[in-house]
Amino acid sequence: xxxxxGDFMYxxxxxxxxxxxxxxxxxxxxxxxxxxxxxxxILFGPWIPVYGFGAVIICLVFxxxxxxxxxxxxxxxxxxxxxxxLLLSFLEWVGGMLIETIFHKExxxxxxxxxxxxxxxxxxxxxxxxxxxxxxxxxxxPLEEKIIKKIPRFFTVFVFFxxxxxxxxxxxxxx
Length: 175
Hints:
This protein is mainly alpha-helical and 175 residues long. The protein is built from five helices and no strands.
């Protein structure tokens, strides 16, 4: 299991920031190469917070399951997959509803996908999030933990204030 020494909030906030940035790069690539009409984030800065929240949720669920469940690694992985499948589907629904409520915009819509549950959840995307969570836990997270250990605290504080300003500007200028 992956552990990291240091402050709990520092670790999870940096995990949030890194994955918000990676989400921005991922969606910008999708928009650039495949879906030019796609909306990819509402903040002005280079981050998409839903990816950061997703990474934190995955990490917390992963640690809880692997610490507390007394079953073999395969079953822990299956439990992780379905737990994240449900939690990230809920996060996607909440994110879509908040964007629609606060900014009166719809950034994604799964109404045309088979087995959708309203505009913001579909079976295909939920399965993708579950699968991607396993890639995240077993490949990406160990690499990110090495990076997080090297991030100076002053940089984390600086980026926190920059993100906070970005959220305030977005709320007052876009909504």
